[in-house]
Design goal:
The protein folds into 3 domains: 6-58, RNA-binding S4 domain (Structural Genomics Hypothetical 15.5 Kd Protein In mrcA-pckA Intergenic Region, Chain A, Roll); 66-129 and 215-241, Pseudouridine synthase I, catalytic domain, N-terminal subdomain (Alpha-Beta Plaits), CATH 3.30.70; 134-213, Alpha-Beta Plaits (2-Layer Sandwich). The chain is 21% helix and 30% strand. It is built from 7 helices and 17 strands. The protein has helices at residues 8-14, 20-28, 119-126, 146-149, 151-154, 193-200, 231-241, and strands spanning 6-7, 32-34, 37-38, 45-46, 52-54, 57-58, 66-71, 100-102, 109-116, 134-141, 157-158, 161-162, 167-174, 179-186, 205-213, 216-217, 226-228. The strands form 4 sheets. Strands 7, 8, 9, 10, 13, 14, 15, 16 and 17 form a 9-stranded mixed beta sheet that branches. A 4-stranded antiparallel beta sheet has the order 3-2-5-6. It has a two-stranded antiparallel ribbon with strand order 1-4. A hairpin with a 2-residue loop joins strand 15 (205-213) and strand 16 (216-217). Its EC number is 5.4.99.-. Residues 6-69 form the RNA-binding S4 domain. Pfam families: PseudoU_synth_2 (PF00849), S4 (PF01479). Belongs to the pseudouridine synthase RsuA family.
């Protein structure tokens, strides 16, 4: 799929017409046309050049919104949850646009998460070939040494998958409690990556946060708070995604 393409039901949802599931129902029941032709299949992909109408009303492209969110622990990185647990969109009830997270943070992980309604922007940042650095701070069980963590710099093999090299810095150790605080910088987005990397080396993660994403930090925010990204911050992220300095 090209970066400028998206599935029809997603385009309808992103325009704020309906949820993704309701959009699928609208398509299946013949309420949607693409360039004047009724479409009832779910696999159709559209671009900004296609004219999509729902019940004869053209989709309007929403204004792109980008937010920096301080995700608290105990919150699901999703727009809904079938177990009725708190999700990240619960903190954006005063924002009219339909937002979704860029990437994810685990339920018990706090830190910087981007929220947007801009699918192209999200795809740019999440694409595997892009190398935007993500900075984590982990409290781990055990007292790691530089030698013990050295495999991180070469790239660990975790669950049969070779991970990209990571940078680390041992911030502090507590010999009495047998714990340490370690800073880790990665650019991949594999599920549970940081936890699995430390676990593989014998240092289970007790607490994890992400204080920085690329050039962005959580300065000035408390857990559960958010702010709009500044235009220069959006531009900086796009440049990083394109491999520009």
């Amino acid at each position: 799929m090209n970066e400028s393409e998206e599935r029809l039901q997603k385009a309808i949802a992103n325009a704020g017409v309906a949820s993704r599931r309701h959009a699928e129902d609208l398509i299946a029941t013949g309420h949607v046309t693409v360039n004047g032709t009724v479409v009832t299949a779910m696999g159709v992909k559209v671009t900004a050049k296609d004219e999509v109408q729902v019940d004869g009303v053209p989709l309007s492209k929403p204004i792109a919104r980008h937010y920096l969110f301080y995700k608290p622990r105990g919150v699901i990185t999703a727009v809904t949850d079938d177990k009725k647990r708190k999700v990240v969109t619960d903190f954006f009830t005063d924002v009219p646009e339909r937002l979704y997270p860029v990437g994810r943070l685990d339920y018990d992980t706090s830190g910087l998460l981007l929220m947007t309604n801009d699918g192209e922007f999200a795809n740019q940042l999440m694409h595997p070939r892009f190398k935007i650095e993500k900075h984590y701070v982990a409290k781990v069980q055990g007292i790691p040494t530089r030698l013990g963590l050295a495999p991180l710099r070469k790239g660990l093999v975790v669950e049969g998958k070779k991970l990209a090299p990571a940078r680390y810095n041992i911030i502090s150790t507590d010999k009495a409690k047998r714990t340490a605080i370690v800073e880790l910088t990665i650019h991949q987005g594999v599920n549970h990556q940081v936890k699995n990397m430390f676990k593989t080396l014998g240092f289970p993660v007790m607490k994890l946060s992400r204080p920085q994403y690329g050039p962005l930090t959580l300065d000035g925010l408390q857990p559960g708070e958010y702010r709009p990204l500044k235009p220069r911050e959006v531009d900086a992220l796009r440049k990083l995604a394109r491999g520009e300095k």
